[in-house]
Structures are given as C-alpha cells and as structure tokens.
Write a structure and sequence with these properties.
The protein is built from 25 helices and 26 strands. By secondary structure, it is α+β, with helices and mostly antiparallel strands. The strands form 7 sheets. Strands 14, 15, 16, 17, 18, 19 and 20 form a 7-stranded antiparallel β-sheet that branches. Strands 2-13-10-3-9 form a 5-stranded mixed β-sheet. Strand 15 and strand 16 form a beta hairpin. Helix 1 packs antiparallel against helix 2 and helix 3 packs antiparallel against helix 9. It starts with 21 loop residues before the first helix and ends with a helix.
Length: 725
C-alpha cells in the first residue's frame, strides 16, 4: 500500500459508538487514525481524494465521538488536535505567526441551535442578543496572504496549521489578488486569509483541455484549484483560472474595525475580493434561514460551496470565547448534505472531441441531484469504467460500471455530474462488462491509446486516427490544413472553413482544390451565399490555385498527424524526400508488439534524428487507417509536394545515411546536421545496418562500438571536412 492510500475500513465500523467495549473502541480508534490520515494525505498533498466530503466527515465524527466516550484513549497525537497534514518537501516552508485552525462542523439544525446557546452560556448573556455573521463555506484551498506596508510579501497554504507551503510566486499570478492594498486604514502588517478556488465554467473548460491533451482529469473544482496552486512551476498556475475570497485574518498590527463584518468590509475597500452573500443574523433562526437560502441558490452560484460558516461578530467576544482543541469556540461550519442521488445507467455514449479524443458519457434515467435534474454524467475514460484509477490502482474497490447498473451520481463542483459508485446488489443478471470501442463511432477509423515508450504506460485517452476524414474532427483539421504554417491559403480562414463545411462544400482537404470546378458546375454558386461576392470568390480561387505546389514539409505538417509539428514534419520530409516515400515507409513499418516483430522500416523511422517511437507510432497509426490513405490519394491528385531543396550535385555524401557521435570540436551538432542535409545526406540518431558513415568525435561510445561491429565506415571530424570539401 502506498503512503497516500487510506487503510481499509475496520470490521468494527458497523458497531455504534455507544455499543463499543473499551478494547474495541481502542482498536477502532487506531483503525480510524490510519484511515483518516490516509484520506488527509490524498486530500491535502495529492489533491486526489478517494471519498466524498460527507464520507470523510462521518469518519471524523465517529473518531471524535469515540474520544468523547473514552477520553482516556485520547493521546498527544490525536487527530482531533491536528489541522491538515505536514508540509510537502517540494515547497519551502512558511511558519504562520498565528495558527490557521479548522472549524467544528454541524450537520443539523439542532447542532446550530446548540452552538448559539453554548455561546450565550459561555458569555453568561442569558437572553441577551449576540450578532453572528453567516457566509458561504467555499470549497477551495485555504491560503494566507501577508501584506507589509500594504504590499504582498508572501503567501502560504494552511499546511498543518502551524507551518504552510510557500506559494508566493503562484499567488502573484492570480489576478484577483492585489499586489498592493488600497486605502488609508491599511495596517503596517496583516495576514489576510481566505480561499483560493475555481469557478464552475473555468473548471469545465480546464477539464476539457486536460481530456483533449490526455492529461489528468480533476474530480472537482477544489482539486483543480489545489492542484493548480501547488505547482512548482508558477507558469502552470498562471495558465489556470484561479480566484480568491478573503474572509479572515491572522497576525495584524492593527484592525480597521471591532467586528468580524466590519473587518471583511474593510478588505473589500482595500481591493480584496469578498463574498457578497455574507450577512448578519442575531439568533439561530436567522442563521438557519440564511443557510436554507444559500442552499436553494447553491446550483446558481457558479462556484463550489459545501456549507455555511457562522461566526460571532464582535471581536472582543471572540477573544473571550477563545479556542478549544483545533477550532475556535466562536465559529461553526454548517455543512450541506452530499449532493448525491441514485439512478439507472441506461446507456454509455461515446463522444468524439475536436482532436479525436473519445470520451464516455453516462446516459441516465433523469434524477434530481441537489435541485438540478441530471440525465448525463461523465465517466472520464475507459479505465474509470473498468474500475481503474489514473495510477493503475483499483477505484470503487475495482467494481466496473455496466449498462443497466444502478449507480450513485454526484454533482462534482456543483456543476459536473459524475458516476461515483455502483449499487452492486442491484446489478441485473444480464448486465455485461462494457467494451470500450476501438473504432471511432463518428467515422469508423481505428481508435488507439498511445504508449509512452519510456514508462510503458498507456495514455488515459483513446483517440481516433481518422484525422482527415473524421466528421467530429473535420473543421479543426481543415482549419489546421489551411493555417499559416501549412497551406496558408489567403481568404480561407477559420470562419470560411466553418461556413464551407456547414454548406457541404468542403469535407476533406482535396475538396478545397476541386471547389472552383464544382462551383462552375453548380446552380447555387458560392457568390450567391452570405458574405461572398464575385471578387472575393475570384480571389479565393486564385489563392487556392497558387498552393497546388507546396514544400513537402508544409504538406506533411498540414496533414495534422499527432505529434508531427513543423520541426518533425521537416525531419520526415528531409529524410524521405517525397510524400510517396513517407507513406510507403509508414505502411511498411511494423511496430514491436507481442505478436509483431519490428522490421527495417520501423527501425529506420525511429532512427531519424529527433524522431522517436512516440512520433513514429503516430505516423504509422495515421497511415494504417485506410480512410486517411484514401483522403491523401485524393489530395495528391490535386497538389504536388515539392522536395525541400535540390541535392548538391556531385556531393560525396548525397543519399548516404550519416550518424554523428561523440564531441564535435569544429561545429555544433546542429551545424553538422544542417551541413549534411544540405549536401543531400540523411542524418540518423542511431547506428544500424543502413548507416553509411559514422563521424566520431572524442568520447564516442556505444554508437562507435556498434558501427565497428557492423563494419560501418567510421571517420573523424577532420576526415568529414576533407570528405565533403
């Protein structure tokens, strides 16, 4: 079991606390300690919790109830005395001048009423009135911002409450957090505390980008915000849409008001974002009314909350009330019940994204989840359906998801519904394991999961290989085809590509070059359509005609093969010399698999300088798809790709394959490569039986040894210059 994996529940879990014998209570407390600590690590360090907040709260409540019934079992290491977890070694540490503590939780109206009564009893107020603030409990990552002379000097996560992680550089990238506070009453020193979060729309967009790129999918906005803030590279944080609400403070040389509400209002004057749903109430009924109001509006807020926080408003009363254990006596978090519902999974639909990613969507019997009717939910990817997590370990105890299952649906982040578990005892006998398609449902092309050759790990996302003909990808592929570094057809931009596709005029690249002939034969010519006149159409056809001859590397790049950008397109174009040669090599290449032995064509491709197994596999997959070959054949009838440059006449290395190894003293490796290519040679990254010359400098190792074993000609750098001069 990994350090971040919680322990399995104990067999005593089903026994009520009041029925536990002392020995059983001690064993259950030890089991809860391990289980909760594991969940804490997953939540605070890994930003990847395995249980819902409600499940975690139940474990915490059971732990505290056992300690309350058997106080002699409470130790100095009790979890009820701790906040968060130890700071990650990846970050520098910041010690909080005033500890960042957590809040006690309430889950019922009676507990809120008891909280108000307890405050009054402690203060000996009898029937006197006490004012409280009530504010939404933001489900994000707690953060402390230290301002000196009004300027932001540091920022830290809560950590273990006493020491947090230094995230100053990352916090400076959050646009809502001012670098300098504005106002006449800003104290010399103040630690502003609040929550870093991500709103719903930004969370959806981020997960869409992550899925398309085959990267980690975040379970909810809290995990996305925490994972984004706790990045070692602040550029990644800057690319993530983080936001902030200020609601508390730590050390302060002076305060601008003598009430909780007054200080938060000052935060807003200073330029800090505060939550507009914070109100004042004077009794339990007022607090509960606001709790229900916020609960009713929860789905419309646009950001994730998991309850309402109540605080005694007067600061002098807060000081009198003080603290108990790991939380203040003057505050309480009233948690919402988990937004979950049970329904039936009727179908699994596969949606194809604009870059070919296949995403499974659960089609559900409609169910009300937290006031919103849900009929679709994400299933993330095929491993998630099979009960396998991103780290390869089982999730949901390894239970797979099947059509016909009764499932538990949760609204992650108040917006994105997801299937979180299966009610296994209700599974129909006829339910069969779901077989994720290996062909694209949009075009019938192969759908593959790439394998990282360094780790041997499969990409989480399965992708369609029918890039040129897949209707789900068509507009994006066509837009790429005519982009600046590809065919660069003037007058045929993104707007025009969309229009032509919608009108049925251009479905694949070859259609662009037959457009003029079809336009002449059509009764409904382009110039009769919205936005097109005779002059603009004439200019477009002229621009298309001028691109019937194009450099081979631009042609290869325009095909939109995964992992083949401008640089790799140029490498492939230089090596193979023609589109036909590249196509034939890719078709002939056999990738090494369990039942297939790699052949010379594969070995040649992965030995091209800069082209490794990942790129080569993408190229082979592209040409392995018959639809792509057909689309390419149609395109080659209209376009003539041109070799990059004429081979130097009379060059002694023309057509030869050259490998440079060791240290070069008279030129850089890039200069050597460029020189060889100008002279018509092909530069490879490794030595094979097809290598003609190895240029070996000082320090040459395994490549030199292999060249000698294959009787390949080996020369020095000086001999290379003599040869090519």
């Amino acid at each position: 079991m990994s350090a971040s994996t919680p322990s399995a529940p104990s067999p005593l879990r089903s026994i009520p606390v009041e029925a536990l014998a002392r020995e059983d209570a001690a064993n259950e407390l030890a089991a809860l300690t391990d289980e909760i600590a594991g969940h804490d690590r997953r939540y605070y360090e890994d930003d990847a919790p395995l249980v819902t907040d409600a499940e975690y709260d139940r474990l915490r409540r059971r732990y505290e109830d056992i300690e309350a019934r058997f106080p002699e079992l409470k130790t100095e290491d009790s979890l009820s005395e701790k906040v968060g977890v130890q700071v990650s070694s990846k970050f520098a540490k910041i010690t909080h001048s005033v500890p960042m503590l957590s809040l006690a939780n309430a889950f019922s109206d009676e507990e809120v009423e008891e909280f108000v009564a307890r405050v009054k009893r402690f203060l000996n107020l009898g029937d006197g009135e006490v004012a409280f603030t009530a504010e939404p409990k933001i489900d994000g990552l707690s953060c402390s911002l230290r301002y000196e002379k009004g300027r932001l000097v540091s920022a830290a996560t809560r950590g273990d409450g006493a020491v947090g992680e230094d995230v100053t550089a990352n916090v400076r990238t959050i646009g809502e957090i001012p670098q300098k506070l504005a106002g006449q009453d800003v104290p010399d020193v103040i630690d502003v505390r609040g929550e870093v979060y991500m709103d719903a729309e930004d969370f959806i967009a981020l997960n869409a980008r992550q899925a398309e790129a085959g990267k980690q999918i975040f379970a909810n906005p809290r995990n996305a915000a925490a994972g984004s803030l706790r990045q070692l590279d602040s550029a990644i944080t800057a690319s993530r849409p983080l936001r902030f609400f200020a609601y508390a403070w730590g050390e302060a040389s002076a305060l601008p008001a003598d009430t909780q509400h007054g200080v938060v209002q000052a935060f807003a004057r200073w330029g800090l974002p505060t939550n507009p749903l914070t109100i004042l109430a004077h009794d339990a009924a007022g607090l509960l009314a606001h709790y229900r109001h916020i609960g009713g509006e929860r789905a419309k807020l646009g950001y994730d909350i998991d309850g309402v926080v109540y605080k005694v408003d007067r600061l002098d009363l807060q000081r009198r009330l003080g603290f108990v254990s790991r939380s203040p006596r003057w505050a309480l978090a009233h948690k919402f019940p988990a937004e979950q519902a049970v329904t039936v999974l009727n179908e699994i639909d596969i949606q194809v994204g604009r870059t070919g990613a296949l995403t499974p969507v659960a089609k559900l019997a409609p169910v009300n989840v937290g006031g919103v009717v849900v009929s679709n939910a994400t299933l993330h990817n095929e491993d998630y359906i099979r009960g396998i997590g991103g780290d390869g370990q089982p999730i949901r105890d390894g239970v797979d998801i099947r059509v016909g299952d009764t499932v538990v649906v949760q609204r992650a982040g108040d917006v994105i519904p997801q299937v979180v578990s299966v009610v296994l005892e209700k599974r129909p006998a006829s339910a069969q394991p779901y077989h994720f398609p290996d062909v694209c449902p949009a075009c019938g092309s192969h759908a593959v999961r790439e394998v990282d050759p360094k780790t041997g790990k499969q990409d989480a996302v399965r992708r369609c290989t029918g890039g040129l003909i897949c209707p789900a990808q068509a507009v994006e592929r066509l837009r790429h085809f005519v982009s600046r570094n590809a065919f660069d057809i003037e007058g045929l931009g993104e707007k025009q590509v969309h229009a032509f596709y919608e009108w049925g005029l251009v479905k694949e690249p070859a259609d662009i070059f037959t457009l003029e002939a079809r336009n002449a034969a059509s009764l409904q010519r382009i110039e009769n359509r919205d936005g097109w006149g005779k002059t603009s159409v004439t200019n477009l056809f002229a621009a298309i005609e001028s691109r019937r001859k194009i450099a081979l590397d631009r042609f290869v790049f325009a095909l939109g093969i995964r992992h083949v950008g401008e640089t790799n397109a140029r490498r492939l174009a230089r090596h193979y010399g023609s589109m036909e040669a590249l196509r034939d090599a890719a078709v002939a290449a056999q990738m090494p698999k369990e039942d297939v032995v790699a052949n010379d064509a594969w070995a040649e491709m992965i030995n091209i300088e800069g082209i490794g197994a990942v790129v080569a596999e993408a190229v082979v997959d592209f040409f392995d798809e018959p639809h792509n070959r057909d689309a390419l054949a149609a395109l080659l009838k209209e376009v003539e790709p041109q070799p990059l440059e004429a081979v130097a006449s009379g060059s002694p290395v023309s057509g030869k394959t050259v490998v440079f190894t060791g240290s070069l003293e008279k030129m850089t490796r890039d200069e050597a490569k460029a020189m060889a290519e100008r002279l018509g040679a092909k530069v490879a990254g490794s030595v094979s039986a097809k290598t003609d010359i190895v240029v070996a400098g000082p320090g040459a190792g395994s490549k030199l040894e292999k060249a000698r074993s294959l009787n390949v000609q080996v020369i020095t750098e000086d001999e290379w210059f003599e040869l090519v001069s």
